[in-house]
Amino acid sequence: MTTAANTLPTLDRLGVTVTDSDLDHKKIVAEWFSLFGSAVEKGNVDNITALFADGALWRDILSLTWDFRTFQGSAIQQFLVDRLAEVQMSNLKLKDEYQRLLRPYPDIVWIEAMFTFETRIGLGSGVFRLIPQKEGAWKAHCMFTNLEDLKGFPEKLGPLRDHAPNHGKWDSDRQRSVAFEEKDPTVLIVGGGQSGLELASRLKCLDVSTLVVEKKSPSRRQLEEQIRSSVPARSCLYISFDYDPTHLANISSTWPVYTPAKKARILDGYEISNLIISSKLANWLEYYAEALEVPVWTSSEVTAASLDPSGMWKVTVSNSQGASRIFTVKHLVFATGFGSYRGKLPTYPGMDEFKGQILHSSQHKKATDHAGKKVVVIGACTSGIYNHSSRVGILTDDHETAHDICADYYEHGVDVTMFQRSSTYIMTTRNGFRILFKDLYEEDGPPVDVADRINASYPIRLTEFLAQRRTLEIAEADKELLDALRNRGFRLNLGFKDAGFSLAVWENAGGYYLDVGTSKLIADGKIKLKNDSLIQRFTPTGLKFENGSELPADVIVFATGVGDVRDNIRKVCGDTLTDKCKVIWGLDEEGEINGCWRDLGIPGLWYMMGNLAYCRFHSKHVALQIKAMEEGIFSKRYSLK
Q1: Which residue numbers in the chain have pLDDT < 50?
Q2: Which of 149, 216, 299, 533 shows its CA 20 to 30 Å from the CA of 38?
């Protein structure tokens, strides 16, 4: 049954009409916020919840729960009863400059505003949205609260940075600080990509000693053949360039809208897969680490880690020269991406009889390796992970290999066939980003830090329903391409729960392809397509399908996902400890992402991951938790019961 708790607050459901010209939205916000602030500071939970609409949502990141939580309906009341007196929320102040009357669709109207507040131990920010009611009042439909800083422990930025003159000792001081010869760091981060570097710079600003260990050397990026770029500079995807990628060093305004991209095997710690990465962006991240003086050991690998009875981590780091060192640290952070799936291939009868070459996408290097051969790429979606929630063992495909490797093969004259096992959600970046990020991550949009908080303020339970509408908008804008794909026989869907790629990202990190040109190659028949039957077995010369058809091949590339995220922990920490670790990625019952950036169930163990935008925003959340623990002000999480 559709109720106020699981649908959009449309005007027809609310039973109201709204004429924008008749509204003084700033007056409405001021009156509501005055009542809200008064009720909060008095601790009057009944008066607070009376200001919320039926089915309202409250999302909190750390500020009131020390966790990532979303409460809905009656759960808001219990949450406030349990937490309000403990956290001592106070000094609420409305931000006049960020109040907007929004009509995302003709039948939806809400007023959005931002505020700041304090708690007993921290400073916070908030976003709320008000919707109209029959009686003429406006009530909150969404509330978002976020921890910004810890009282007494500000980030050492601007005037708080070190002002002492160095007198020419910078080089020696820098070498000494990176060597950690006198004292082990408090935090050791495995992986020197955007995840590890962002977190390390956050921790440095909070005066928490940190070392990043990166397996690759800058001279061994192994940048390969140029392929198409995929993501606008202010959009939001996995490894490709995002809007203003880092929190302490903004990119130049001359940076191209689409960052030039190449295939590379670098930056997310272990060599997980053929990531789409820009040499320009890789240079930027190296510059970022050097400019911010982040301690990084390159050409080094964390080979083992264990948790001793005292709660400290013993971490073995080995370098390319064969030397090793054991660090004793309080916090071990894995910043190694979605997982390692090398060597783990699906099994089919006859694989041992096949006379050609069988590869996983993580083993593929460049198209010219297979010049003059027939190649079959198995997979037609985005990089996937095992989902250990309700869909145990489901594995999705790999866009960064299936589509882009197919395009790479075609562009180098290699005969390539894509085998599509299941339907795929296709969205062009040209139309999709314009619709998804309008009024937010645009060149003329709000400042990036404001946009981040507004974006985070939409609970996933609400995003799902908005995404279903936006998905239809995008499909209409992409109609010509989608019709051409259907005519070619390519199977399409509208994404997980018909919500496009957003929920697919959060649930499985897969199931879609964000098109930058490969789809047209498929539609035009330039990349061959096979999807009329499942694979029955391998033959000595190719594949045989259940319908009796056969497909000759010299090379078969499995673009079938990257495994369980926890594989990277397992490789270093072993089975016993990893088996106690909570699921990483996928959504919990409240619609929050599992595991990363929050409690993993093992003291001092963290997983930092995500695209550049997620890393920019959530790196501070991880850093604040670690800093609070180190200063003895971290209290118990208000976690799922």
Answers
A1: 1-4, 219-245, 263-277, 341, 343, 384-399
A2: 149
CA 598 to chain centre: 13
Alpha carbons within 13 angstroms on the beta-carbon side of residue 114 total 18
What is the DSSP pairing of strand 313-319 with strand 300-307? antiparallel
Hey, what domains does the chain have and what are their CATH numbers? 4-150 (3.10.450.50), 158-164+179-339+564-630 (3.50.50.60), 351-558 (3.50.50.60)
Q: Is 290 exposed, middle or buried (0-12, 13-18, 19+ CB in 10 A)?
A: exposed
- Cβ contact 105:113 at 8 Å: no
Tell me the CB-side half-sphere exposure of residue 528, using CA atoms within 13 A: 15
Q: pTM for the complete prediction?
A: 0.89
- Give residue 43's region: left, alpha or beta (phi > 0; psi -120 to 50): left
Q: What are phi and psi of 586, to 5 degrees?
A: 80, 165
Q: What are phi and psi of 376, to 5 degrees?
A: -115, 125
pLDDT at site 102 = 94
Q: What is the dihedral of CA 106, 465, 402, 273, to 10 degrees?
A: 120
Q: Are 333 and 187 within 8 A, CB to CB?
A: yes
Instruction: Give the pairing type, strands 542-545 and 512-515.
Output: unpaired
| H/E segment holding residue 139 | strand 138-150
For position 292, what pLDDT does the model report? Answer: 83
Inter-axis angle of helices 429-436 and 460-477, nearest 10 = 140
What is residue 260's predicted lDDT score, i.e. its pLDDT? 59
Residue 402 CA to residue 407 CA, distance in Å, equals 9
In eight-state DSSP terms, residue 250 is P
Q: What are the C-alpha distances in Å from 248 to residues 90, 238, 244?
A: 29, 20, 10
Is 446 within 8 Å of 440 (Cβ atoms)? yes
Question: Is 304:255 a contact under the CB 8 Å cutoff?
Answer: no
Helical spans, DSSP H, in 71-193: 74-87, 170-179
Q: What is the DSSP string of 440-487?
A: TSSTTSS-HHHHHHHHHTS-HHHHHHHHHHHHHHHHHHTHHHHHHHHH
The DSSP annotation for 298-353 comes to -SEEEEEEEE-TTS-EEEEEEETTS-EEEEEESEEEE---S---TT-----TTGGG
- Taking the CA atoms of 519, 524, 527 and 531 in sequence, report the sign of the dihedral they define: positive
Residue of 544, 89, 635 whose CA lies nearest to 349: 544
Please tell me the predicted confidence (pLDDT) of residue 453. 95
At residue 258, the pLDDT reads 58
Task: Measure the CA–CA gap between 288 and 282, rounded to whole angstroms.
Answer: 10
CA gap 232, 256 in Å, rounded: 8
Give the span between the Cα atoms of 629 and 579, in whole angstroms. 24
Residue with tokens 């003086």: 293
| φ, ψ (nearest 5 deg) of residue 125 | -130, 160
